[in-house]
Amino acid sequence: xxxxxxxxxxxxxxxxxxxxxxxxxxxxxxxxxxxxxxxxxxxxxxxxxxxxxxxxxxxxxxxxxxxxxxxxxxxxxxxxxxxxxxxxxxxxxxxxxxxxxxxxxxxxxxxxxxxxxxxxxxxxxxxxxxxxxxxxxxxxxxxxxxxxxxxxxxxxxxxxxxxxxxxxxxxxxxxxxxxxxxxxxxxxxxxxxxxxxxxxxxxxxxxx
Length: 208
Prior knowledge:
Oligomer: single chain
Order of helices and strands: EHEEEEHEHEHEHEHH
Distance between the termini: 36 Å
Shape: globular
Strand content: 15-25%
Number of helices: 7
Mean pLDDT: 87
């Protein structure tokens, strides 16, 4: 966490007892990633969606690295550890059609496709994504593998919000939170879970 930044936990519904799991990676027909671009701390999260539950299996993150190098040397190599030969959908920032940097004319989308990725995005704000993630965490339909220690720390206390509920840009945790948020938002089609359904699922989970 960046020095001097203080706020409230953004993912306040996270509970290790409910939202952390263990187990081997499954062999499925379809896998997903959530990717946050950026030279400072590019981040990709690997996920599956089974029986209405989002499972997070792995997070890849590097510091001060351009997008092509990050994708080729880290994301694509990590993908080779996934069982089988699934179809991939890569959720990312809705600004992926913009020029990636002033060092070249390619957009982030073009770079991703050139590196063998399949970018998809829809518009969302950091606050939108945080609210959806909180709803999912609250009812246990967002699960994070115990090996993702940095992401778990991000959910526990790293990602912060200010008094108005806006996500604080700290230069560190925000990238993990964005990558996770893009994936969750994309998998669920940007659909908020109705409050009455959250309450019903929460009651059912507590009863079980």
